[in-house]
């Protein structure tokens, strides 16, 4: 185990250490490594290609955030309160929001209070690539405190240009957003420097009474980019106030959240020959939360005001040594919390260590067939909990350009681990709206899966069949003996799943189809549990369809759709167990002025009242207009 006293000085230490390490290693090691491979010319790609799997990339209810592109992502279930950007619980492969990680560049952004705030990332999507959904071994290696999956973003290179957009619509909705990127010139003969920034705000009265919001975001970045390196220094702030009846409780009360998130992040990546790389990252994140059970009677029962601070430093890379490729990753995070309500546990700060080492070897057969084996281990530890060692193994067969199609088959096993957040650990165990337990054990997950990937010139097909054991997993549950509370309890749960994603591009149509099947078997032991808010809130069958139709003459239709058949849950009060959720937009770009785009969008087209989270009312249909200008 690792032991340390964590506080303000430690925050500063991590930040200074990472800045020093990035600058020194970047200046010294970069020169040495490239000198050793002078015959190799390494060029940093203009951007990392991530397959677009949703049709409407801009948010309808507010300005776009990193979580926006996850709403209709085929392999992600975004369960929303009010709307996804207000609060989106990100579930992957039947896991709950607490088991999902978020990685930007080379570091995990983590909220130690609750996974409800994991997606509070004040970065403009224009600064990032699209999201990659990491599962299995990739999640086990990459995500800190993530057992089911990790959402990963990379930093985009800055180019000169921008986007100015505005929207307005029903319920007094209005939105304004400005993104501007500028290449400033060269530093010597080897590096280019650029800056970009984002200003965004939105407000609305909401689609239901007391469902209003007021959001603002300010963010900026400095980037230094060379032929084989990229350094990004980012700072951002985001404030979000929103209301919603039954936001967390089923009593028909007008509840509110008031969040302020600050993020400072430094990321440096270097590319070497043969696909090798080294990436160093550090960050500081502060999240303040003021939750009101009743907006008209602030502070009733007990004020829920929390402030969490997290700092982290990490590095990851790939190193080829002979016929073996060594993949490695190390992250050290530290947190602290100040709270008016989460005061019943044993500690208020914690440090985390995650280290992984995964060597791989590839054998080439018949010219185009490659067989790759990965065998490795992941080590997780904190200064407050027991440690965990998780083995990893994968065998994959890849055929390149077989009749114009690349194929890959794989079989893998992986383990992952996480520890509970402060809401579960430090809530009052015998009273209040949320009931915690200070004795919650480290959660452990084991995953085995088999899958295949097919890639053609304008189409792709991927499928995975997996079985995951979460034992234990911390769930929030309901008991008839304590009807006013949500209680943290451990559950042993088996998850069987099938995922299928098909992508096809024609001259005038882009189509993405997804299907997920989930089946669960749960055991809560001796706990008094009558229903589950999260672990057993899932779709047995979920189908998604994203379509972009280019009509010609500057017109385009984009539509995202989801059909789901939900597992029965007694906590659902309205809406039933089936839902059809759709967003559609009609866009027009002037033929002689394509930089200007006008859109008419409808969210929740069918005005479906399905409760994505039990007892939380669904948002109603929303119609808005959008105009944007790019340069």
Provide a brief overview of the structure.
This protein is mainly beta.
Using the alpha-carbon principal axes, give the shape. globular
Q: Which architecture per CATH?
A: Beta Barrel
The percent range for strand residues is over 45%
The structural class is mainly beta
Rg is 24 Å
Helix content: under 10%
Please give the domain count. 1
Largest sheet: 22 strands, antiparallel, barrel
Q: Span between N and C termini?
A: 53 Å
CATH fold group: Maltoporin, Chain A
- Give the overall average pLDDT: 91
Alpha plus pi helix count: 3
Question: Which stretches are poorly predicted, pLDDT < 50 over at least 5 residues?
Answer: 1-50
What is the count of β-strands? 30
The name of the CATH superfamily reads TonB-dependent receptor, beta-barrel domain
* Top CATH class: Mainly Beta
Molecular structure report:
The protein has helices at residues 8-36, 136-142, 422-426, and strands at 77-81, 87-91, 100-104, 107-109, 132-134, 149-153, 161-169, 173-187, 191-204, 213-226, 229-245, 254-271, 277-292, 304-321, 324-339, 349-365, 369-382, 388-402, 405-418, 434-435, 443-455, 459-479, 482-505, 509-523, 531-532, 539-552, 555-566, 578-590, 593-603, 622-630. It starts with 7 loop residues before the first helix and ends with a strand. The strands form three sheets. It has a 22-stranded antiparallel barrel. A hairpin with a 3-residue loop joins β7 (161-169) and β8. The chain is globular. It has one domain (8-630): TonB-dependent receptor, beta-barrel domain (Maltoporin, Chain A), CATH 2.40.170. The chain contains three helices and 30 strands. The protein is mainly β and 631 residues long. Helices cover 6% and strands 57% of the residues.
């Amino acid at each position: 185990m690792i032991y340390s006293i964590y506080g303000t000085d430690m925050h500063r230490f991590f930040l200074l250490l990472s800045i020093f390490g990035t600058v020194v290693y970047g200046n010294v090691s970069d020169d040495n490594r490239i000198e050793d491979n002078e015959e190799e010319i390494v060029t940093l790609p203009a951007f990392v290609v991530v397959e677009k799997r949703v049709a409407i990339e801009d948010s309808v209810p507010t300005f776009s955030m990193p979580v926006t592109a996850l709403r209709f992502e085929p392999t992600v279930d975004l369960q929303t309160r009010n709307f996804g950007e207000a609060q989106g619980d990100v579930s992957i492969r039947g896991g709950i929001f607490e088991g999902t990680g978020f990685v930007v560049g080379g570091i995990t952004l983590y909220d130690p209070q609750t996974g409800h705030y994991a997606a509070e990332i004040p970065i403009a999507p224009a600064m990032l690539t699209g999201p990659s959904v990491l599962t299995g071994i990739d999640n086990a290696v990459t995500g800190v405190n993530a057992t089911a999956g990790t959402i990963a973003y990379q930093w985009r290179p800055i180019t000169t240009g921008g986007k100015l957009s505005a929207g307005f619509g029903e319920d007094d909705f209005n939105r304004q957003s400005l993104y501007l990127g500028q290449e400033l010139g060269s530093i010597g003969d080897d590096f280019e420097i650029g800056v970009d920034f984002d200003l965004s705000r939105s407000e609305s009265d909401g689609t239901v009474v007391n469902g209003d919001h007021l959001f603002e975001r300010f963010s900026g970045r400095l980037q230094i980019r060379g032929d084989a390196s990229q350094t990004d220094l980012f700072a951002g702030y985001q404030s979000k106030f929103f209301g919603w009846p039954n936001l967390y409780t089923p009593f028909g009360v007008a509840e509110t959240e008031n969040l302020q998130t600050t993020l400072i992040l430094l990321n440096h990546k270097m590319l070497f020959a043969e696909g090798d790389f080294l990436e160093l990252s550090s960050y500081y994140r502060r999240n303040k939360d003021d939750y009101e059970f009743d907006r008209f009677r602030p502070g009733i029962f007990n004020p829920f005001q929390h402030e969490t601070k997290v700092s982290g430093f990490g590095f990851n890379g790939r190193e080829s040594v002979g016929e073996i490729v060594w993949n490695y990753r190390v992250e050290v995070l530290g947190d602290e919390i100040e709270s008016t309500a989460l005061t019943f546990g044993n500690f208020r700060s914690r440090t985390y260590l995650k280290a992984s080492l995964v060597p791989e070897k590839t054998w080439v057969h018949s010219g185009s067939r490659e067989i790759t084996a990965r065998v490795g281990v992941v080590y997780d530890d904190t200064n407050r909990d027991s440690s965990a060692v998780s083995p990893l193994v994968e065998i994959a067969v890849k055929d390149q350009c077989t009749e114009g199609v690349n194929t890959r088959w794989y079989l893998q096993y992986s383990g992952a681990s996480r520890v509970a957040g402060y809401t579960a650990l430090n809530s009052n165990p015998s009273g209040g709206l949320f009931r915690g337990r200070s004795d919650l054990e480290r959660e452990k997950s084991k995953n085995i899966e088999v899958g295949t990937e097919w890639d053609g010139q304008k189409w792709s097909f991927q499928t995975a069949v997996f079985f995951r054991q979460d034992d234990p997993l911390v769930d929030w549950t309901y008991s008839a003996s304590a009807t006013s509370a949500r209680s943290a309890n451990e559950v042993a749960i088996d998850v069987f799943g099938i995922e299928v994603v098909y992508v096809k591009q024609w001259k005038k149509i882009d189509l993405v189809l997804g299907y997920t099947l989930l089946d669960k078997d749960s055991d809560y032991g001796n706990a008094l549990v009558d229903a589950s808010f999260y672990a057993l809130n899932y779709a047995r069958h979920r189908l998604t369809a994203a379509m972009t139709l280019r009509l010609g003459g500057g017109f385009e239709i984009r539509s995202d759709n989801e059909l789901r058949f939900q597992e029965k849950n007694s906590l659902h009060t309205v809406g039933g167990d089936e839902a059809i959720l759709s967003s559609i937009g009609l866009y027009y770009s002037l033929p002689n002025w394509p930089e200007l785009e006008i859109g008419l969008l409808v969210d929740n087209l069918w005005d479906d009242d399905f409760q994505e989270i039990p007892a939380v009312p669904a948002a109603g249909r929303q119609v808005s207009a959008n105009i944007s200008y790019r340069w």
